[in-house]
Amino acid sequence: MKALIHILVDYKGYFGSKQKSTVYRGGMDLDLISKYFNKYGYDTKIHKFSEIDFRKNNYKDCLFIYTSQEDFGHHYKNYIDDVLFGLELHGAILIPDYKFLKAHNNKVFMEILRKSEQNDSLNNLDSFHFGCIEELMKYKDTIEYPIVIKKSTGAMSKGVYLANSWNELILYAKKASRSNHLFSELKDKIRAIRHNGYIKESKYRNQFVLQEFIPNLKNDWKVLIYGDKYYILYRGIRNNDFRASGSGKFIFDNESLIPSGIFDYAQSIFDKLNVPMASFDICYDGKSFYLIEFQFVYFGTTTLEKNDCYYIKDNNNEWIKRVEHSELELVYVDSIINYINNNKLIKKGD
């Protein structure tokens, strides 16, 4: 009897992210994923999140791989979050673990996860996180400038600002954290009039992050890791800006630009976190590497799909370049199987 892998797809029937999907924003090819799992001796069963029946207590030790979403307002993503946490409570084996979904498109939890890990490479970049702007006020005399302000959600550098003073910091923090709801704010004004001593609700309750600024950068590096394969992309800084994400200034294959040690740095974090795949945004100031952001579920795949090479360690523990184009679905399945085997999660025939 073959072991079974459950695949959770969204309400459209889509799974994961793929830059060159057959249908626009249609995710990976599920037929190919099932085909490659079958070659490893695994059957697959596809479910929508709403099809998980928690009245049945039969999910213990079942293997689940899953998608996420980046819908505006996180409406469906929040639903995914609830279902996966429910599966974890029932003893299901989620790949990757639930905490890594929690960090998807959530920069506050990303920083919480970073600080929760005992890893120097992960924690050499200082940061603060806040649930509202009022919580920022007591840090006025301790913050060093320039400093980066980030909305908790968002991609392509949207909602990312650079402040050079306290006044700029408050201005950008208000932009990042404004929680606009006029009717609720009107009701709150009435409460303040009626009830002496009442403290009004903050108008700035969208969570946000402050992150240490690394000066004089010309680029950062997008590094995608699938198992033992490392894909790298040079991303130039935008004109008259400090941000590289979304710049479009990409260089896919130029070994002379790749700083020595970047793959060892990425591997030190990847191995510590114990995940099947990852997307890292790394910068280098000429002395040290810094991990700016990271994702483990539902991230962009351009760095793999448009690259004609990847890097891998050989038997002598040296990084070598392999020139070949990778198929996303095959690399994805390989990384999941590698993760299952390394963690001894299940035996074929169980």
Overall pLDDT confidence: 92
Q: What is the CATH topology descriptor of the largest domain?
A: D-amino Acid Aminotransferase, Chain A, domain 1
The span between the termini is: 7 Å
Number of strands: 15
Let me know the CATH homologous superfamily of the largest domain: ATP-grasp fold, B domain
Q: What fraction strand?
A: 15-25%
Count the helices. How many?
9
Contiguous uncertain segments of 5+ residues: none
Q: How would you classify the quaternary structure? A: single chain
Task: Give the % helix.
Answer: 25-40%
CATH class of the largest domain: Alpha Beta
Strand order of the largest sheet: 11-10-9-12-13
- Radius of gyration, taken over Cα atoms and rounded to an integer in Å: 22 Å
Shape: globular
Major beta-sheet overview: 5 strands, antiparallel
